[in-house]
Specification:
- The complex is a heterodimer of chains A (about 350) and B (about 375).
- Chain A contains 15 helices and 8 strands.
- Chain A has 2 domains: about 60 residues; about 210 residues, Orthogonal Bundle (MetI-like fold).
- In chain A, about 60% of the residues lie in helices and about 10% in strands.
- Chain B has 2 domains: about 230 residues, 3-Layer(aba) Sandwich (Rossmann fold), CATH 3.40.50.300; about 120 residues, OB fold (Dihydrolipoamide Acetyltransferase, E2P).
- Chain B is built from 8 helices and 19 strands.
- Chain B has a 6-stranded mixed beta sheet with strand order 6-7-8-3-9-10, sandwiched between helices.
- In chain B, helix 2 packs across helix 3 and helix 2 packs parallel to helix 4.
- The longest helix of chain B is centred in the middle third of the chain and has 18 residues.
- Classes of the chains: A alpha+beta (about 350), B alpha+beta (about 375).
- At the A-B interface, helix 10 and helix 11 of A face strand 6 and helix 2 of B.
Chain lengths: ~350, ~375
């Protein structure tokens, strides 16, 4: 905690704050607001009820009207701050409203009714977190199915990506064979082909393989990535060849060298690729949209999109769902980022 | 335990030949050191024996079996690398056990062998540490331990001490020698340090530019170097080389006139084979610094006048760096302490019985004339 305080009050030099300090903090604050503001807005809005979302002007926090249980009435009545004709103000509960006239009662003495012009009453508001937005999306929609589809695609595709790319990188970095550099260049050069160009060929292949409307149809085309091969190969080049020689002298098979020596030592690079892969697969929209057309195969991203396609958009559900969609990537990133730094620290020593 | 034979073993990378057909026989239980300047191919030769590099030509025979096409893992050898090559993500115990696990050794046997090796190398307290938490000497011992646990037929060492500081190097040197005495396993040891070679080896193989210059026991190489290269490589400080010519040849040998003293031929003859030497032939006379004596001219010696440039007093010994009238340099190793200082002139004796004569007509090979 103290280190956080030190970091936040760091200054250039030891004396009073320089104008560059003000500028730096201003710039950083602007960045913070620009980057984090929309996310905060999203999270707070996801706790608003449908009515609160439609209010104008909008409120930053999820306010709702306070209501109170009154004897003789089945449902809680909305509470208003009323200016009585004699000038006094009281909190009264509204029983009914006809035209511009409202009938209110005192919650503590419900027998006496006040008839008031609606202009003389203001709703009493307090913070109300509409947690129902979250609980209801699980009940009302097959949110669990979408979540499972997304998780399955992300986890399986990431595992296969790590395995396949690491195997390719191992061969390209540690074996000497004719055409090795040509193969590597070929793999890297595919980075220059925009994904939209190969959309149709990919679709045809997946379709021929009968993988349309199957989660594997999303997974297989995505597992071999030139970026992954590149990251891992560059990292594996830094692993000394003598370790592999030593393992060979230790009777290790090539697969065992890969599995027991190369993979553990590549952990920092694998963590980087894992983060990338999880983000790519989780946020992937276009390719799943093409491959998956049946609702029960939808990923979260597709489901979010489908929500907006209706005549009316149920914003309170959409926002809650968006928050839930963001959470896993954020968690994965937070966890693996810590792992990367420790990985580099321990691998930095020869 | 096993013997090793190399028959015309060669290594080529494309058009470049780095090992030129080497023949060598290593007897069972022998400690053989490959020594030579960096780039002479000694490590490549070792890696070819290990199976980490393929031989372009010739046969590698272990225990009577040709192993050229046998993989490194199947040859049953163990190797200690210059950088130790310990697996950084495994503990010392796991490092030692890795090879045995690959052989599917029962867990109890692995444990017994690892603990046995650890005890022998004084690593018992370090088994749960990782290599990064060890000192250089400890890492070195782990690397040796990793070789020991598998009971290899031949140990291969690739410059194992070059990353250690001087004191530790001396200590590890005697530890490896003691290990050899205890295990009795054949060991092949690569180094560029001739002191290591002299102190550890049963036999030394001197390599230069991919060829064997001489094979012999340490004292063989010291006393009877085959050529100027071996003479200069073995011994510290280096042997002095003075150029001259053969003045006369008789039956008992040749008399030499040095460029530094052209009019005084040696009064004793050096034994040479008359068939290989001719009168007026250019020669190099080699003499080790410790054989040069200072003072009045003695019989059976060549005498030259030397000007002292610099004197190093080590207490028990002194080194005098001198220049001769020919401009050649001469190092003198005198025991004890001397009263000379820089700038003085003195007469030095080169006892003929301690000199070595090399053919200077081919400066590149400079074969010994005997």
């Amino acid at each position: 905690m103290a280190s956080v305080a030190t970091m936040l009050s760091a200054r250039r030099g030891r004396g009073k704050a320089d104008w560059t300090d003000w500028f730096s903090y201003g710039y950083l604050l602007l960045g913070l607001v620009l980057m984090f503001g929309p996310v905060l807005w999203l999270v707070l809005s996801s706790f608003k009820s449908a009515a609160a979302l439609n209010e104008f002007p909008p409120h930053f926090l999820p306010y709702g009207q306070k209501s109170v249980a009154v004897a003789g009435h089945e449902t809680p009545l909305p509470l208003y701050l009323v200016t009585l004709p004699d000038g006094a103000t009281r909190e009264l509960a509204e029983v009914r409203r006809i035209g511009i006239q409202a009938t209110l009662v005192d919650p503590n003495a419900p027998d006496r009714e006040y008839k008031i012009n609606i202009r003389d009453r203001k709703p009493v508001r307090d913070l109300q977190f509409a947690t129902g937005n979250y609980s209801e999306i699980f009940a009302k929609f097959s949110f669990g199915t979408y979540l499972w589809n997304s998780v399955f695609i992300t986890v399986v595709a990431t595992l296969i990506t790590l395995l396949f790319n690491a195997m390719a990188a191992f061969a390209l970095s540690k074996y000497r064979f004719g055409g090795r550099d040509a193969v590597f260049l070929l793999i890297i050069s595919t980075l220059m082909i925009p994904p939209t160009i190969i959309l149709v060929p990919n679709f045809l292949v997946v379709s021929e393989l009968g993988l349309l409307n199957s989660l594997w149809g999303v997974i297989w085309p995505a597992v071999a990535t030139p970026t992954g091969v590149f990251i891992l190969r560059q990292y594996m080049l830094t692993i000394p060849d003598e370790l592999i020689d030593a393992a060979r002298m230790d009777h290790a098979s090539e697969w065992r060298i890969f599995w027991r020596i190369i993979l553990p030592l590549s952990a920092p690079a694998l963590a980087v690729l894992a983060i990338f892969s999880v983000m790519w697969r989780w946020n992937d929209f276009l390719w799943p949209l093409i491959v998956l057309s049946r609702t029960e195969k939808f990923t979260l991203q597709l489901a979010l999109n489908a929500f907006q396609g209706e005549l009316t958009t149920q914003w309170h559900y959409l926002l809650a769902m968006t928050v839930v969609t963001l959470l896993p990537v954020t968690l994965v990133f937070a966890f693996l980022q810590k792992y990367i730094t420790t990985g580099i620290a321990s691998a930095g020593v020869k | 335990m096993a013997g090793l034979q190399l028959k015309r073993v060669a290594k080529r990378y494309g058009a470049t030949t780095v090992i030129h057909g080497i023949d060598l026989e290593v007897k069972n239980g022998e400690f053989v050191v490959f020594v030579g300047p960096s780039g002479c191919g000694k490590s490549t030769l070792l890696r070819m024996i290990a199976g980490l590099e393929s031989a372009s030509d010739g046969d590698i025979v272990i225990d009577g079996n040709r192993v050229n096409d046998v993989s490194a893992a199947q040859r049953g050898l163990a190797m200690v690398f210059q950088s130790y090559a310990l697996y950084p993500h495994m503990t010392v115990y796991q490092n030692l056990a890795f090879g045995l696990e690959n052989l599917r050794t029962p867990r109890a046997t692995i444990d017994a062998k690892v603990r046995g090796a650890a005890q022998m190398l004084r690593l018992d307290a370090l088994l749960e540490r990782r290599p990064t938490q060890l000192s250089g000497g400890q890492r070195q011992r782990v690397a040796i331990g990793r070789a020991i646990v598998r009971d290899p037929t031949i140990f291969l060492f690739d410059e194992p001490l070059s990353n250690l500081d001087a004191e530790l190097r001396v200590q590890m040197r005697s530890e490896i020698t003691a290990l050899h005495a205890r295990l009795g396993t054949t060991m092949i040891y690569v180094t560029h340090d001739q002191v290591e070679a002299m102190t550890m080896a049963d036999r030394i193989v001197v390599l230069r530019a991919g060829s064997v210059e001489q094979i012999g026991t340490p004292l063989d190489l010291y006393n009877r170097p085959d050529n100027r290269f071996v003479a200069g490589f073995i011994g510290s400080p280096q042997m002095n080389f003075l150029s001259g010519r053969i003045a006369t040849i008789r039956d008992e040998g040749a008399r030499i006139a040095l460029d530094a003293a052209p009019h005084a031929a040696s009064d004793a003859a050096l034994p040479v084979r008359v068939s290989t030497a001719t009168v007026e032939q250019r020669v190099l006379l080699g003499i080790r610094p410790e054989h040069v004596t200072i003072g009045a001219a003695q019989a059976g010696s060549l005498h030259v006048t030397a000007t002292i440039d610099r004197v190093e007093q080590l207490g028990a010994a002194s080194f005098l760096y001198c220049t001769l009238s020919s401009g050649e340099r001469l190092t003198v190793h005198a025991s004890g302490q001397v009263g000379y200082t820089g700038g003085e002139q003195m007469t030095v004796n080169l006892p003929v019985s301690d000199t070595h004569l090399f053919d200077a007509t081919d400066a590149e090979t400079a074969v010994a004339l005997r």
